[in-house]
Design goal:
The complex is a heterodimer. By secondary structure, chain A is mainly alpha-helical. Helices cover about 65% and strands about 5% of the residues of chain A. Chain A has a single domain, classed as Cytochrome C Oxidase, Chain A. A two-stranded antiparallel ribbon of chain A has the order 1-2. In chain B, about 75% of the residues lie in helices and about 0% in strands. Classes of the chains: A mainly alpha, B mainly alpha.
Chain lengths: ~575, ~210
């Protein structure tokens, strides 16, 4: 009880701004990354305006400065340099400041201590530092729009030599800020990863064996290992590129006999594990929500864990499949093709196990369940189009076309983002004590699912017809002109898709104050976070919980309810408990 | 920072590594450091294999005897770090403070020699780009050779410097009597970091100076 009293004595700024409580830090990450999600969405809308209606005056474009939009009597027309910045910053912000902090920063912080029965992270102050590095890094990234020359414009992959010298893109300071911002974010990610791994290894409650951990925590654990090992590679590459730009080194510059391909190797050696950093936690969240919605244990729990581990392992030996067209040795191309195709095996194991989980279940279609089902179906499409690209002969044709754009959005939007919607709705009570509105949640889900498919499905088609990614004006090419109606259709759907997200935003904000009070366990789930009040008090558990079983004992024959909390003693032990709960050690 | 609460562990074995959090955290952090230096060293190897003509023969540009002596100094600082750790496990406060100070001095000497080496090399024109540094002319191939040399040794030097700053903090706490024969976690993880930095240097010295 001391911990609770202590929490109330702390001044407001220590409780909510510079907080060391993992739940508050999770909320901080949530607000930060939802803000960047909105920013990234608006950038996407601007990109789509230019693609749908090339060089026509953009509504509201007059609000932007002349360096971005050329003013004409009819209105403001987007400049090509600004278009490059938009494409770069949309990718960068969405990947590093929206999806990654949403999955890792929010759910890692919120779920790990609660699901393993710990009072907080192993290093709460390091955790606080993690947020207070990530947030300024994001602001720095945004600020680069305001500097001379604009924001970075060499794509989110920042391939050298395009990115290595300001002469090529006209962006000097913006590119450097991009590099510095991502380096700072790397430190934040590392702090988080060290924290998560230590916490999960060392701070599990008694009885919480490895194979009693919920799959969300398992996925976050493996993700943390990927972050720990991949981010330093990116940091090394970023620093070398920064040196090339500022202090005259020639790592990636052909002019000094440097190796531009080296950047691609370093970037994708980080970048491919990063892809799984962005999807593994989503898979974990989906597993938790699907089992809950189907009222059945997860089908093949051990296989699910092993699939996560093997995907994580394979992610280190496939990076070359991003570089089939880069002039790499074709022998290597074949090797990377084979290793990449092998990843389809654990991914398929996961998909079939999800189907096995819902098969003949007593399905409750609550909003998180709908989003989880959305995740599974969209991930199948995105995963299958991934196999197209893994195959070198096909990739030679579709490389750097809109087919790739469609693929990445099917896995990152249709995949990760739907899982994020599922997770945020599902664990909203553990952050704010209330439930989000179910009716509006479902309306948002259906509209998003339909509009999202209308936006990204046609991109497969225009990609196969040769529409290149990252081009400023598709109508410049005669063979792309017949595709322009499809581009306009996509653009209109994107505006609708962005507008529909207002439903979610309003639902989220209003529910903080007006939502239905949740109680401890609104979804009748099993894992430890549902044994404590919503939101849990400072220190989480009054007594150290003792774990008797796995997290997916839904509809077990031994109990009357269709759920069985992990810390409920089995019937044989209720008469004479072998283990009495221990007070929380300070 | 001491061992996990014994009473709970006795009644019901806790899952976990039976290593206290800070030590486990330091090991995990060092794994990421390995990957960081892997990126730098890997790039060096690739660039050197791709353009062997840009890289001078061992000893042609770099001062090998001086750095060999400096390497010896850094290895000695690892020995003194071990002595500091051994002292506090025996509860020897005086020995802890003495050996920590010796380690700090040896580490500082190492960084000092490295700075001296940089200054001499820069004056000789061993810089990535002559016009940026106000040097008359640059040594052939320095844009790659110099770039990799300064990046790798520079980041190692930064790690040593950070280590020295942390060691002052440990020494300050030792002066306050915060460590004892039962509570020496801070000294132990300081040692882990220091030995790691030492190990990285031995690899760097071999591949940058000797091969």
């Amino acid at each position: 009880m001391d911990a609770h009293a202590h929490a109330h004595e702390m001044p407001w700024i220590r409780r909510y701004i510079f907080s060391t409580d993992h739940k508050i830090i999770a909320i901080q990450f949530l607000l930060m990354s939802l803000f960047f999600l909105v920013v990234g969405g608006l950038l996407a809308a601007m990109i789509r305006w230019q693609l749908g209606f090339p060089s026509e005056p953009m509504p509201g474009g007059m609000l932007l400065p002349d360096e971005m939009m050329a003013p004409t009597p009819a209105g403001a027309i987007m400049l090509p340099e600004f278009y490059n910045s938009l494409v770069t910053m949309h990718g960068t912000i969405m990947i590093f400041f929206a999806i990654m902090p949403l999955l890792v920063g929010v759910f890692g912080n919120l779920l790990i201590p609660l699901q393993i029965g710990a009072d907080d992270m192993a290093f709460p102050r390091l955790n606080m530092a993690s947020f207070w590095m990530a947030f300024p890094a994001g602001l720095l990234m945004l600020a680069s729009f305001a500097v001379e020359g604009g924001a970075a414009g060499a794509g989110w992959t920042s391939y050298a030599p395009l990115s290595a010298s300001g002469e090529y893109t006209g962006v000097y300071l913006g590119q450097q800020l991009w590099l510095i911002s991502l380096t700072i974010l790397g430190f934040a990610s590392l702090a988080g990863a060290v924290n998560y791994i230590t916490t999960i290894i060392n701070m599990r409650a008694p009885g919480m064996t490895w194979f009693r951990m919920p799959l969300a925590t398992w996925a976050l654990f493996i993700t943390a290992i990927l972050i720990l090992l991949a981010i330093p590679i990116l940091a090394g590459a970023l620093i070398m590129l920064l040196f090339d730009q500022t202090i005259g080194t020639g790592f990636f510059l052909p002019a000094s006999d440097g190796e531009p391909l080296l950047w691609q190797h370093l970037f994708w050696f980080f970048g491919h594990p990063e892809v799984y950093i962005l999807i593994l936690p989503a898979m974990g969240i989906t597993s938790d929500v699907l089992a809950n919605g189907a009222r059945k244990p997860v089908f093949g729990y051990h296989a699910m864990v092993l699939a996560i581990v093997s995907i994580a392992f394979l992610s280190w030996i496939v990076w070359g499949h991003h570089m089939f067209q880069s002039g790499m040795n074709p022998m290597l191309g074949t090797t990377f093709m084979i290793t990449t195709m092998v990843i389809a095996v654990p991914s398929a194991i996961k998909v079939f196990n999800w189907l096995g989980t819902i098969y003949k279940g007593n399905i409750h279609l609550h909003t998180p369940m709908l989003h989880a089902l959305g995740f599974v179906s969209m991930f199948i499409i995105g995963g299958l189009s991934g196999v197209f690209m893994a195959s070198t002969p096909v990739d030679v044709y579709i490389h750097d076309t809109y087919f790739i754009v469609a693929h990445i959005h099917y896995v990152l939007f249709g995949g990760s983002l739907f899982a994020i919607f599922a997770g945020v709705t599902f664990w909203y009570p553990k952050m704010f004590g209330r439930l989000m509105n179910e009716k509006w949640g479902k309306i948002h889900f259906w509209l998003t699912l339909i509009l999202y498919n209308l936006v990204f499905w046609p991109m497969h088609s225009i990609g196969i017809q040769g529409h290149m990614r990252r081009i400023y004006d598709p109508t410049q090419y005669e063979f792309l002109q017949p595709l322009q109606p499809i581009n306009q259709f996509i653009t209109v759907c994107v505006f609708a898709l962005v507008a529909v997200q207002a439903i979610y935003a309003l639902n989220f904000i209003i529910s903080i104050w007006k939502g239905k009070k949740a109680g401890n366990n609104p979804w009748h789930a099993n894992s430890l976070e549902w044994t404590v009040p919503s939101p849990p008090p400072h220190g989480n558990f009054e007594l150290v919980p003792i774990v008797y079983r796995g997290p997916y004992e839904y509809s077990a024959p031994d109990v009357e309810e269709d759920y069985w909390l992990q810390d409920t003693p089995p019937p044989s032990e209720t008469a004479a408990p072998a283990l009495e709960p221990q007070p929380v050690a300070d | 920072m001491s061992q996990p609460a014994a009473s709970t562990a006795d009644r019901h074995p806790m899952p976990g590594m039976m290593v206290y959090n800070v030590k486990l955290g330091m090991w995990i952090f060092l794994l990421s450091e390995v990957m960081f230096f892997t990126a730098l060293i890997g790039s060096y190897i690739i660039l050197r294999f791709a353009h062997p003509d840009h890289f001078a023969e061992p000893g042609a540009v770099l001062n090998v005897p001086l750095t060999a002596f400096n390497t010896f100094v850094l290895i000695c600082s690892s020995v003194s770090m071990v002595k500091a750790y051994a002292a506090i496990t025996q509860g020897d406060q005086k020995g802890l403070k003495f050996w920590l100070l010796v380690t700090i001095l040896l580490g500082t000497f190492f960084v000092g020699v490295q700075v001296y080496e940089y200054i001499i090399l820069a004056q000789e024109g061993f810089v990535p780009m002559a016009e940026l540094y106000g040097v008359a002319h640059e040594i052939e191939g320095a844009a790659l050779y110099g770039a990799t040399f300064y990046t790798m040794t520079g980041f190692h030097g930064t790690h040593v410097t950070i280590g020295i700053l942390c060691m002052w903090f440990v020494l300050y706490r030792a002066w306050q009597g915060k460590y004892s024969a039962n509570n020496y976690g801070g000294v132990e993880i300081m040692g882990l970091y220091w030995h790691f930095v030492d190990l990285v240097w031995i690899i760097l010295f071999t591949i940058v100076y000797l091969i």
